[in-house]
Amino acid sequence: MKTICDTAMILAAGRGERMRPLSLQKPKPLLEIGGRAMLDHALDKLVATGIKRAVVNAFYLAEQIEEHCAKHRDIEIIISREDELLDTGGGIKNALRAFDAPFFALNADLPWMDGAQQGLQRMKEVWDPAKMDALLLLMPTNKARGFEARGDFALEKDGRVWRKDLPVPRPYVWISAQILKPELFAKISDKVFSNNRIWDDAEARGKLFGITHIGSCYHVGTPRDLTKANELLASGKGWAAE
Fold first, then answer.
1. From 75, 107, 139, 177, which residue has the greatest number of CB atoms within 10 Å?
2. Domains in the chain: how many in total?
3. Which range marks the domain in which residue 88 is found?
4. CA-to-CA distance for 179 and 168, rounded, in angstroms?
5. 171 part of a folded domain
6. Residue 240 falls within a domain, yes or no?
7. How does pLDDT run along the chain (242 residues), one tens digit per residue?
8. Has residue 157 been placed in a domain?
9. How many Cβ atoms sit within 10 Å of the Cβ of residue 223?
10. pTM
């Protein structure tokens, strides 16, 4: 049995409403960071980790996503078209036939920069399907650029992640990458649902885990974030928290 599926998922279907007016004419994943579309940054990381193909879901301005993906030659890309927005969990479930083993799932619009080690490679090395249902790439909230101070999760010394009844501010934020078991989605009958449902179920079983990212990130949620993130890269300062 494969440890990690050689096909990954990239979520690129959203409307990017907070990025308006820039996202009115171009889908948010195609806006550029450092001269390269955010979607391409995600694809680059998959290629560097040895992933052979990516399923990219598309809904809002889907034709632009398809045309952009058709230009790639370094990785096979399968477009998963949605007739309606299925949310993060529903979007993955809609493409579930592509995954025959635990798989990477990345957001197309949340770039991060690796430090001395590749984040996805570290996740592959840490992944343990015997005790994990999901593995998240996390960043200390106070070191993550562009995020709200409230945070997402707590991370224990043994790698377990939790948030139920945890007051804010929470010490860690999730920064786009995760490894998931396909069977988590197969047992859900709903068509439209958030990936939060997957995380909550895994947490309740004690099988939600995480690792801390070695590097930097920028949650590019608004036009102002996009400008600031690019300014920092152009200046050579990077995204490390001040």
1. 139
2. 1
3. 7-235
4. 25
5. yes
6. no
7. 458 999 999 999 999 999 999 999 999 999 999 999 999 999 999 999 999 999 999 999 999 999 999 999 899 999 999 999 999 999 999 999 999 999 999 999 888 999 888 999 999 999 999 999 999 999 999 999 988 889 999 999 999 999 999 999 999 999 999 999 999 998 899 999 999 999 999 999 999 999 999 999 999 999 999 999 999 999 998 998 76
8. yes
9. 15
10. 0.94
Residues in the chain: 242
The rounded radius of gyration (Å) of the Cα atoms in the chain is: 17
Segment (H or E) for 175: strand 172-180
Residue 85: which CATH number? 3.90.550.10
Provide the CA 66 distance to its chain's centre, in angstroms.
19
In our burial notation (b when 16+ CB lie closer than 10 A, e otherwise), range 149-184 reads eebbbbbeeebbbbbeeeeeebebbbbbbbbbbbeb
Beta bridge partners of 180: 103, 134
User: Is residue 34 domain-resident?
Assistant: yes
Angle of helix 196-204 versus helix 87-94 axis, rounded to 10? 90
What is the end-to-end Cα distance of the chain in Å, rounded?
A: 44
Residues 6+ away with beta carbon under 8 Å from 67: none
φ, ψ for residue 205, nearest 5 deg: -90, 0
